Amino acid sequence: MMKFIHTSDWHIGRQFHNVSLLDDQSYVLDQLIQYIKQESVDALIIAGDIYDRSIPPATAVELLDKILKTICVDLSVPVILIPGNHDSAERLRFAANQLKQSGLYILGDLGNVTEPVIIQNKHESLCFYGIPYNDPEHVRNQFNVDLSGYEQAHAYLIKLIEDNKDEQSANIIISHCFVDGAEESESERPLSIGGADRISASLFKGFDYVALGHLHGPQYKNEQYIRYSGSLLKYSFSEQNQHKGVTLVEFDDNTLKEITHLPLSPLHDMRIIEGELEEILQQGRVDPNAEDYLLVRLTDTHAILDAMGKLRVVYPNVLHLEKPGLMASTDQQSVNRDKIRRSELEMFHDFFKQVTGRDLDEKQADALQETVSSLHHSQVDS
Ligand SMILES: [Mn+2]
Question: What is the pTM of this model?
Answer without folding.
Answer: 0.84
